[in-house]
């Protein structure tokens, strides 16, 4: 307790001061001392918690606020008495030194607590963040700088900390040089390597085979799912680029106010094709060195820094009350807060060190009669940020560069350059133009930066190690650039300036509100980069149950197109909800009402001062870090809801349509696509996807009839050119003709399947048309009166179709065609209705399920019992053959990645269909013949015997017999996945719950066998989520369906042991917590 007594004795001067001036009563002082004693006792415990320190600091802050409030209230009342004529009341005024002394005492106490907290929890970043936030709130510059330096020394691999420190220097200290040095050092410290690509080569063959794209990634492929550290480092680069833009814009505005050239003489000539491929430093030579030296001279000019103004102000005899308190507080805690080993933030050590190594460039103080140095014109031209583009290629893995370039393009597009038109991320348009020409100086600066970013993206994609996804993304950016930001493209000369909103230039010059919002560096959530991660995710309604084949994730082929079109859609379309579930055409909307609140929020923040990015980041920091991402992710959902969304054009889109500028912009984009179709193999498919996107008003808000007609004509010409090389386009075209003309398309369909014999989509179209237009009676075979000899004819039309497209090579070869088809149709119609016509994997599932349904129907329509039994045996045999044939495909070594997932999905469908068939009366009849020869052999031999031969008589079949036979066969012969077995178990359990089936011993035994197989399969796969799902389902069955809680608790121990063995102790704890939640939810 000596430490407690010592800490209390340190507060005696403050208590005496409060007692002397009667700010707190005796009882209140005793209460303060008692509470401090309790807090101090908690802090010296062997296992003190961070929360104890936080509560203690909050108590001291509240106490300080109470004392200041009472002191000011007392002085106010006394001054009122003095004004009323009571001169004697002046003696009761608190001395001027009271508040500074109180601030010093309170700050010293809080700093002492913070120091103890960061020493005890030095590796806890939250503890340092709280310390820094407190110092900033108290405006303690020296303390904040020292704490930043110590925190960075302990946590150099935390990019968010470097960004926070740079933001403090840039916006609080107005020290661009220190902010630039901090961000540069943070970038040097936090380097990225493509660890995922390196680990892919070290992954075991078994894991590659089982997990496919989740375990291995195509070398050089773009990364769409990033780790937390990778996203933090990319945010660091984006905020560094933002800082340089802020530096340029502050300089431009300052020179404009001084009446100097603020960049109106920007270089407007476009680089030639030969120089576009060159880095900017080589292209501009010595100009880049001049720009860099000029930037340092401006930053180091003592006449240009706000710090110098603060020093001059501090030398005055008079300081206001707040400055006195801050000065006294910093003087009181100066010895308590130690310096960092390398204190770069908020101290004079950094400035002097940097100045010693700065180039010998004379500081420039602008004046009205001076000549502007050439280097300063380079600053105005934006040359400094362009130097960063070279470093991106050298320090960022190629798999992540596309994300970064896109984020920088979005940042530059929405940055409030003076004398320009600003287009925000969600389509808000702001004008801060002062010039009357087509482009202002800010527009030309933005154009130069965006053109340079696109050129850098193209250079990165031309690297030989880059996959097709990076090249496709670069070309896609170049082609949609006129649609995304026409004012930074040549098409700007064709756009009418009459459509621009009223200029806010005068108000912006007075308040700098837009620049202030854009200058905030975002440490936790940066809208420019973090909002992009959701756009790149493949929508669930495209990926779920529509897996496609390939060694690696095939969506990599078209993901850049999906990503950029989603980004473009946010710029063109906003939404308002209405209480209808579907639109007029019955097509589900791709938006949900969660997007409405997001759009409304951004629309409101886009007006007035328009702190769009800053407000969004602050709201994100205050709430959950992934709140906006979850909201935006729901936009991809096409599930039915109580609300439908009516698309509404954004202000940017309305501006283009008001004076007829939209056709010019779209024609420019179409021309670019046509000009670059030969540059990259998949650019024509990207062109087709973009046309379908533009033709869908729900996604693009294009609703002008003439423009839609033009898009349709371009689409038709492109389809005609692509049809010989893209099979699914032919299938789609014939499908439309079949619906429109019927039998007239039948001959073309027959020709198609003769040419594309291994294309399951073509066979689906053939199967759709054959029952109506084929002359082959096998398509209408049933058991209600036809001879048994027609069995072979019926199988003759189905078996070759299935064999032609169910081999292992067929799964492995269907890599990318289906993803382009799914994406194109989804973009054009908002929801893909018949994916079996464009997706080979879904087509295979459709063919097999139709075949099994055909078998089931043929076996259940026979009018007499004798023929029904024979039909049931025939159907039972074919179901067994289907399970064996689809399971045999999985044994092939050719199947890895998503090809194996597709084959597994097909096999699971067949297994589930046989399990469902075992519940029918036909299966019960087949079970009675289990001891006799089964299948096609028995039926073929029956042709040689008398058709009226005596059939075996059997007893009444037990209701469980067919299900037990089917389960025994599936357990012995199938390779179903864990999820398939859980689905079968769920069906069996629901039959018991709804009363269709009694929970007797055979039923219990059967369901238990299914769960045991599911748990064993999950353990073999070594997948923690699957294992957890299997055990939770089994325990729920024991506890809630079987109502045997003792057995469930006994099995719980086994479950924890199994999950601990696969996923570790943390997974076992999470599993137990989830089980407890399920039990509690069931009871409630």
TrEMBL record:
Keywords: Nucleus, Repeat, rRNA processing. InterPro entries: HAT, TPR-like_helical_dom_sf, Utp6, UTP6_N. Residues 332-344 have a biased composition (Acidic residues). Pfam families: U3_assoc_6. Residues 591-608 have a biased composition (Polar residues). Residues 8-76 form the U3 small nucleolar RNA-associated protein 6 N-terminal domain. This is U3 small nucleolar RNA-associated protein 6 N-terminal domain-containing protein.
